[in-house]
Design goal:
alpha+beta; membrane; 15 strands; Bact_OuterMem_StrucFunc; OMP_bac; single chain; signal; 2 domains; OmpA-like domain-containing protein; 4-stranded antiparallel beta sheet; disordered N terminus; globular; 60s Ribosomal Protein L30, Chain: A; 290 residues; 7-stranded mixed beta sheet
Length: 290
């Protein structure tokens, strides 16, 4: 006998609050910054920060249909056709799953835009839309929620966004920071000089007001999650230094790729690995072409 669609969704949602679920089966890949959304779609990133201490699952609904159940430190990414949609997150809504029935928060979602939404846990269901830069900070260390399947019929496969053209300027992380460090206080005199000259170059080429992306990369030494955070702190420190050298903060976005782009395969002692992986420790500043 086949279960009806609503019954399947109810069974899946019930599983989300089971204390026996193992973390390794709940979560997938770690958060990484994304390119722009496709011009004909709306992208939604729903998440719960790693310092969220509520141990209950937040059921995410799209137009009253179940998308997933977010646990602390989890995120989900999905796309919709632009237009009016309802979004909501509810805890303790079993067994009635009122989130399916209550759709008080509706909005007209724009094409080509990514909305970062932190799950509300106050029972209102209200989507808390976050500023992109603040969301990027809170998403560091989170992992994709993978243990449940979406039942939301409005969700469509995400298409790749329009590729923008950038000039990329690479700086050795070892020039800027000591190994394992991300403190702006530890940036070397050579690093300060290099960033100052770079900022002067942008201003002389009238590029200071264009979109600038600062990306931190690390080697694979250490834990993956720690490396994501290290790359983000380094990118944030370089952004601050660029601002101190006269570039506008609102035009600069900082992000981390952690160890995800490592190509070298190094062995030997820790000292030998540090030397071998030197090229992987870098900061790339990308400046949009117009």
């Amino acid at each position: 006998m086949k279960l009806k669609k609503y019954a399947i969704a109810t069974v899946l949602a019930s599983l989300s609050i089971s204390a026996t679920l193992q973390a390794q089966s709940n979560f997938g890949k770690a958060w990484q910054s994304m390119p722009a959304a496709a011009s004909e779609q709306t992208r939604i990133v729903y998440y719960r920060a790693t310092d969220d201490n509520n141990n209950k699952a937040a059921h995410i609904y799209v137009d009253g249909e179940f998308q997933t159940a977010l646990l602390t430190g989890g995120y989900t990414v999905f796309c919709l056709k632009p237009g009016v949609h309802s979004l909501g997150s509810y805890i303790d809504d079993a067994p009635g799953y009122q989130g399916k029935q209550q759709q008080p928060w509706r909005d007209n979602l724009a094409a080509g835009k990514t909305y970062y939404i932190i799950a509300s846990l106050d029972g209102s269901g209200r989507p808390l839309v976050m500023d992109s830069e603040q969301a990027q900070q809170q998403l560091v260390g989170t992992r994709q929620q993978t243990h449940l399947l979406s039942r939301a019929s409005a969700v469509v496969p995400c298409q790749p966004g329009t590729t923008q053209s950038y000039d990329n300027y690479e700086f050795s992380s070892d020039l800027l920071f000591n190994f394992g460090s991300a403190s702006s206080a530890d940036i070397s005199a050579q690093g300060h000089s290099a960033i100052q000259q770079f900022a002067t170059l942008l201003k002389s080429k009238n590029k200071a007001e264009q979109r600038i992306i600062v990306t931190g990369f690390t080697d694979p030494i250490g834990e993956e999650e720690s490396n994501i955070k290290l790359g983000q702190r380094r990118a944030d420190a370089i952004k601050k230094l660029l601002v101190n050298n006269g570039l506008a903060s609102e035009h600069i976005h900082s992000q981390s790729m952690g160890e995800s782009q490592v190509t070298a395969q190094c062995t030997g002692s820790l000292k030998q690995q540090k030397a071998c992986y030197q090229g992987e420790r870098r900061v790339i500043i990308s400046v949009e072409n117009k």
